[in-house]
Amino acid sequence: MSDETWLRTSIATSTADSITVRDRDLAGELMGRVSFTELTFLLVAGRRATAEETRLLDAVLVSLADHGLTPTVLAARLTYTGAPESLQGAVAAGLLGAGTVFLGVVEDTATFLAAILEDTDATDEAALRRAAEAAVSARTKEGRRVPGLGHPIHKTEDPRTPRMYAIADETGLLGPHLRLLRLVAKAHAAATGKTLPINGAGVAGAALADLGFPPALMRGFALVARTAGIVGHLAEEMAQPLGMPLYQEVDRRAVYEPGEDSKS
Amino acid sequence: MSDETWLRTSIATSTADSITVRDRDLAGELMGRVSFTELTFLLVAGRRATAEETRLLDAVLVSLADHGLTPTVLAARLTYTGAPESLQGAVAAGLLGAGTVFLGVVEDTATFLAAILEDTDATDEAALRRAAEAAVSARTKEGRRVPGLGHPIHKTEDPRTPRMYAIADETGLLGPHLRLLRLVAKAHAAATGKTLPINGAGVAGAALADLGFPPALMRGFALVARTAGIVGHLAEEMAQPLGMPLYQEVDRRAVYEPGEDSKS
Amino acid sequence: MSDETWLRTSIATSTADSITVRDRDLAGELMGRVSFTELTFLLVAGRRATAEETRLLDAVLVSLADHGLTPTVLAARLTYTGAPESLQGAVAAGLLGAGTVFLGVVEDTATFLAAILEDTDATDEAALRRAAEAAVSARTKEGRRVPGLGHPIHKTEDPRTPRMYAIADETGLLGPHLRLLRLVAKAHAAATGKTLPINGAGVAGAALADLGFPPALMRGFALVARTAGIVGHLAEEMAQPLGMPLYQEVDRRAVYEPGEDSKS
Amino acid sequence: MSDETWLRTSIATSTADSITVRDRDLAGELMGRVSFTELTFLLVAGRRATAEETRLLDAVLVSLADHGLTPTVLAARLTYTGAPESLQGAVAAGLLGAGTVFLGVVEDTATFLAAILEDTDATDEAALRRAAEAAVSARTKEGRRVPGLGHPIHKTEDPRTPRMYAIADETGLLGPHLRLLRLVAKAHAAATGKTLPINGAGVAGAALADLGFPPALMRGFALVARTAGIVGHLAEEMAQPLGMPLYQEVDRRAVYEPGEDSKS
Question: Under an 8 A CB cutoff, do A69 and B9 touch?
Fold first, then answer.
């Protein structure tokens, strides 16, 4: 490794008598002094969160952690059924479904909002409103959905949304992305005559953007949150298995359909 | 699904206008009111943590989150090199190495301590000391290592250990497992003449046991903690890639050795 | 990398105009000349398989590839539901359930047979029979199941078993592990009065052992075989999704049970 | 499950005395009669391959299986270092890096070729040439690379390419995608004055397209092939570990850089 400029990190290091994480002494400055959420912020952003930022990030993580027996939770529990010796395998299987369909909304919303904000003075409420209307109009003309709006279950209001706005407001962190998202929802209702609620994934994306995180990293926070949810489900699976009876039910009722191919 | 007693969960559920996690209203009772660590405790244990338990669990999570460029972090970063479109894949790859070699110590220590405590009155310090001595003696006679002792880098003292004991003491959570582990370390030093420090994984296992978690679930907390560390590393990898140059370095220096098999 | 004796491999290497796999020129000696099964044998064993060995290994891989909507297949399909952008994630999720519960039998059977063969002259049929009887007796006395016997669906005979024995016989590869497994099944029937069939996983383990593979590697062949099955299921999932309706069905019928914990 | 039209599969099913895979009796019609490659084709395509198709698919699988110590292989070996109890975890970690960067070329090439063929009469060689020239010209004008051309190591010729063409020719399977890819390479050289070789991933994509597989499934074949390569590397890792010394080397030489953030 003649030229080692690439072999460097600013995340963590250790010596015989110390461990350093993001320039802080792990034992003396972090353990017992910061919450795990503060540590997560520090690890990803490379700086300490303020108390207000921590409160908002906590709300985001709490909002994303678990929603019951989702496809990813079912995948984790079915994986545990076959490989109970490897809790990490079941958790990993659960995280692997955290892709574009469910979690994509978080970053799609943030990306959509950021593109609007690039060309708009966010301190000018009227300009922001016009930009929201233009972006919604352009999007719906293309026949594309506006990200962050609508939910299959919470058709009128996603309960997480007003709560997240209230927390952002209380903490003084109601930033341009969160404000713009509300204008986008209004513009969408005006343009289409159909009021769609801001969904929990969308508001999480806007909040993470106002906390300063780029879209490409947002899924990372969702993954931290989901890991806790999956571990909770696996704790339940150990005591009260659902994977095996689910498989047996599927096996009992599945219909085998011969293919169209005549045998050769 | 004629008999659906198996298709039930106590983790989470939702209706059109509410989401419930472990019997609490997600928006009203959890978001903005509990930290992510409190939510994690609630998800896994099914009950609210006290402030003291939260503080100790935070210390455990913070202590386990990251230790720099470990094998699992390298696996995550190398996976990101090939599949940057799938952050969840890189995180999952990183978690998959969280197996018996590195994280096994957490649960092995807890299991070892629990076995001793099963037959011992933990309130009787002298009895506890004798039980520690007997268990260490039995273990070393079998030629097996006592779990939770010794560290390849922190040869004299693992800096996390005294800190974790101090936090447990401050929070009134210095329970039987943590107390016993200290007696085990002393008994080991007395029996072998070699003083090995209690390592960070061992003290985490004892602390999680005193928090009431069974060994089979402990890896779950480590996985939550590690996910944050891995996401931090992937944030760095995006800005300053290490995976590709590491591969190139390996490729450049690796020696291909012909096999012993003569060609057939 | 001062001392690079560790940075070496005998698997593959390449130069500007050639690729070498296990000492063979990939383009000139392998592509178009060996089947993928022969390549798999070569990669893992480091030597070319004979035509007979290839035929038996093909039969093992074919026997293990797919059994319909198993827990691991369901996990793969549910993962695809959330992350269709990452076929590798869905396949990986499917493989992660290939653990001790379902695939463990392959290596458990091989390990059980190998332990008996260690102390027995396999060419002496009578000695082999006595060893089988003793091992079965010891195992059942301990209250443990004899690995490789019994199947939840194929209660009388697993159709793969007589076929595998016929192929092993035809290819002259009916080795000590396969012969012993048959004696083990007979000894078990005699000792317990209950005739259990040799199952497909058990006969695969015995065949792989007779092909010279150690138990620790056997799961690897099962993983190669399963990958093909999972890809087949994902091809079907793309055309005719099962993951989303399965989740919706679970969501619709799952019962949320409040926990025992009174709120705090 | 009132309406179960969704709970059906054409892949496999079993009864007490039979297992059916794609309408064939597993024991009687597949084991001992088809190679694993034929089974893979059957599982994914839903029909039997001809002998010629099998030979070409074998060549594709053989060509993709292994290329030495790639990032994905390193990830698999480093994962095994931490979790040797879970071979499936190490294999899964290795597959997770099989994403857009390395394997994307297979499907990108097929997609690029298919788009050209949609509007071109493939039996008219001159028309095909003109279409290739137009597509290359359009692509390079956009400043985008033509997929399937160029290789970091095989700068003049990828040895797999002429071999694959020879096998396709011998088997009568030199279809429109493979023929077009050669014209694309020529058009690129003429347009840019720079001769780039058709790479192994590109030729694999064209061959899989000529075998009738859609781009979205191609990665699946690469995953089957890679699984064999990874298992080969893990067999070597068990005997001669590379993961731990690689980590130790990285740990020894990595430089910790304090962040820009002044402590807060």
Answer: yes
